Hints:
The radius of gyration is 27 Å and the shape is rod-shaped. The chain is of the alpha+beta class. It is built from 3 helices and 8 strands. The chain starts with 5 loop residues before the first helix and ends in a 5-residue tail after the last helix. It folds into 2 domains: 6-39 and 164-195, no CATH class; 54-160, Immunoglobulin-like, CATH 2.60.40.
Amino acid sequence: MTTISASRLIRWLKRRRRNVLVPFLLNVAAGLLVWYFQTIGNPPAPLPPTRSASIRITRIPTRLPKGQSTPSEWIAGQVNGLNEYESYRIVIYSYTNQWYVQPTVLEPKTGITPEGKWQSYIQGGVYYAALLVKKEINLPPESQTLPTDDAVTWEVQTGKADLLSFGVAFIVTNGLYLLALTLVLRRKAYLNLKENPNRV
């Protein structure tokens, strides 16, 4: 029975390291491209008008894959330039495959504190919009385009990238891929050296 030393296996693998590294690096590049194209893009909404009143989203929920609305997260922001905050409300929308009012159809408006702050616990999406409206204004519960006609002003933000989840999935996936590829090549090296015991 022919025995194959570990050193001979290592030398065989080193000579063929390109067979491991090239597919691995291509897989890494493909993963980075997927992440890049998932995090770019302009929100499907018009630019807000230039007015004395302004609204900002200061706490942006995570960006989810298109069509996905869970998990829910907090969104928050700040309104400036108003004298009577109690006369206004915030209407929040999340965009999955279209704009959906948040937090619910039954509670489509979010109040504003005397300091101009607002917050709500909403379903997720790709993009998030906050519209400042008069409290008597009612906007549609869903829409293909952001309903800005009756809004004083608004802001739209792309959801923030979930780098932690992406990084963990990326490392695990590529680690398993590299491990499987190494085991296959090691098995191939063993069989090759077993058939050719005099080959170094």
